[in-house]
């Protein structure tokens, strides 16, 4: 029974007493402060997500690329990451375009949820990427949020 009792009260701090001339005095342990409230008060640094189509490829759906908000990305490093993920037939990604063909010139121009096209050495190919490759139910979900 004493083992069971010690198991139940393990980690609990009881009252601790000290004797002095006035008798027995008790002090209670200080309550533990939780960091949960502090975590909720800090602004969340969730990454931005962009959806990237491969230029001229109407068979592959867009892939997602996470961009950290906390540290600014160097444009060349972003293009290198895009090259790794896109795996274009023409080679490395040299530029990133919006769906209408306008070129994105820096990571600061990218907004969470953007759809872009990774372009290599060839020119941008204006195709109905979004209409053909993005399922309609996901479009409704994106518009809902």
Overview of the molecule:
- By secondary structure, the protein is α+β, with helices and mostly antiparallel strands.
- It has a domain at 48-130: Ubiquitin-like (UB roll), CATH 3.10.20.
- The chain has five helices and seven strands; from the N terminus they run αββαββαβββαα.
- A hairpin with a 2-residue loop joins β1 and β2.
- Keywords: Repeat.
Question: Could you give a short description of this structure?
Answer:
With 145 residues, the chain is an alpha+beta fold. Helix content is 27%, strand content 23%.
List keywords for this structure.
alpha+beta, Ubiquitin-like (UB roll), 5 helices, 7 strands, 23% strand, disordered C terminus
